[in-house]
Amino acid sequence: MQGLEVRGLSKRFGGLTVSENIDFDLRPGDRKALIGPNGAGKSTFANLVTGVLAPSSGTIRFDGQDIRQLNEAQRVRRGIAKTFQITTLFRDLTVRENLRLPILERQRHGYRFLRRADGDVRTEAEVTDLIDQFALGALADRKVADLAYGQQRLVELALTLALKPRVLILDEPAAGVPSSEIHLIVDAIERLPDDLAVLIIEHDMELVFRVARQIIVLVQGRILTEGTPDAIAADAKVRELYLGGSHD
Ligand SMILES: Nc1ncnc2c1ncn2[C@@H]1O[C@H](COP(=O)(O)OP(=O)(O)OP(=O)(O)O)[C@@H](O)[C@H]1O
Ligand SMILES: [Mg+2]
Fold it and tell me: Of 26, 111, 169, 198, which is least surrounded by CB within 10 A?
């Protein structure tokens, strides 16, 4: 199977079970959201998939291959990426200068055979593509420090895309973004490459219901239920437990 295939995944910290027997698939083109209360185990699940944490039991396959022995950097090179934290942006560099860095890093591993001049041309073409894709043209030559918070998160997303991932995990892309700037994040997610497999972990339900085609509800480390946005919005257990009885 193409994409991620997680079976029976569990994680215990001492006596505390934070992931319990999770089955999860993420295929090219998917737009899934993982929601649930604080402490439900959403970030832990992302960390198990990206290799930050080792599972207590269960399997993780990518394109049919067991990837449990790969560390985080090796999984990134296979194409499994999680958004950079904003702290990894170089605040005194421009947007364009920041975008160059992950591209050069990736090329160090991939295009060693290229002559330097060819590499430069290729790098600048990729930077320009990313700037266009994320509609960052007007901001490209401004320092990251001078951008609005939502715009910084957009740059962070563009940086992750520079790694050319096939699986993208967004852990709270809208966290801390003022409501007036959430549309920047929604637009960026909607413009991601069609064949990318995307998992969005998010508390902002407006964003979740705008971009997800499938929603998984995690409670105390277990999948409570999963389904289409309509089915989840109508689910009595979800309304009671998580959405506070109303969502429209
Ligand atoms: N390294 C760790 N050692 C011990 N317990 C941990 C560790 N990391 C997370 N936990 C616990 O695991 C549980 C799940 O945490 P996790 O961060 O995955 O939740 P979350 O769903 O992402 O929450 P939030 O919505 O607040 O981000 C919490 O009870 C947390 O305290
Ligand atoms: Mg979290």
Answer: 111
Ligand 1 atom nearest residue 47's Cα: 18
Nearest bound ligand to the CA of residue 47: 1
Whether 246 maps to a domain, the answer reads no
Residue 111: the pLDDT is 54
Q: Is 38 in the pocket of ligand 1 (CB under 6 A)?
A: yes
Give the pLDDT confidence score for residue 138 in this predicted structure. Answer: 96
Give yes or no for residue 40 CB within 6 A of ligand 1: yes
Q: Collect all residues with Cβ–Cβ distance below 8 Å to 170 and sequence separation of at least 6.
A: 82, 83, 157, 189, 198, 199, 200, 201, 202
Alpha-carbon separation of residue 210 from 20, 78, 85, 150 (angstroms):
28, 29, 23, 17
> Looking at residue 125, which CATH number applies to its domain?
3.40.50.300
Does the model's pTM come out above 0.85?
A: yes
Mutate which of 16, 17, 18, 199 to test ligand 1's pocket (most atoms within 8 Å of Cβ)?
A: 18
Query: What atom in ligand 1 is closest to the CA of residue 41?
Result: 18
Between the CA of 114 and the centroid of ligand 2 the distance, in Å, is: 40
Terminal-residue alpha carbon distance, the chain: 36
Q: Based on the structure, what is the number of domains in the chain?
A: 1
Those residues of the chain that have pLDDT short of 50 are: 245-248
Specify if 149 maps to a domain.
Answer: yes
Indicate whether 247 belongs to any domain: no
Question: What domain range includes position 196?
Answer: 4-241
